[in-house]
Amino acid sequence: MDRHTWLLWFGPGLVLLGGAAVVWTIVRRRAQVAPERDDDTSEQEW
Fold first, then answer.
1. What is the pLDDT of residues 1-46, one digit of tens each?
2. Residue 4: count of CB within 10 angstroms of its CB
3. pLDDT tens digits for 20-31?
4. Do 24 and 17 touch, CB atoms closer than 8 A?
5. CA angle 37–27–14, rounded 5-degree value
6. In this structure, is the dihedral angle defined by the CA atoms of residues 27, 28, 32 and 37, taken in order, positive or negative?
7. What is the pLDDT of residue 18?
8. Rounded Cα–Cα distance for residues 35 and 24 (Å)
9. From CA 46, how far away is CA 42, in angstroms rounded?
10. What gap in Å lies between CA 28 and CA 31, rounded to an integer?
11. Residue 30: CA count within 13 A, CB half-sphere
């Protein structure tokens, strides 16, 4: 492992972590925007 090849060694892991952070952010935002479900099952549509 040379100083000049650090990007080759650690780049894929950094890209994976970055992608996971993006997915996590999107999921968190959608969970906040999503309307709460009404648990009234008496008028359930099929």
1. 788 899 999 999 999 999 999 999 999 998 888 666 666 555 666 6
2. 7
3. 999 999 999 988
4. no
5. 165
6. positive
7. 98
8. 19
9. 12
10. 5
11. 6
Chain centroid to CA 15: 13
Look at residue 39 in the predicted model and tell me its pLDDT. Answer: 62
- C-alpha distances out from residue 3 to 10, 11, 16, 29, 45, Å: 12, 13, 21, 39, 62
C-alpha neighbours within 13 Å on the C-beta side of residue 5: 3
Largest distance between two CA atoms of the chain: 66
Q: With H, G, I as helix, E, B as strand and everything else as coil, classify residue 8.
A: helix
The one-letter amino acid code at 22 reads V
Q: What's the one-letter identity of residue 29?
A: R
Number of helices and strands (H, E) in the chain? 1, 0
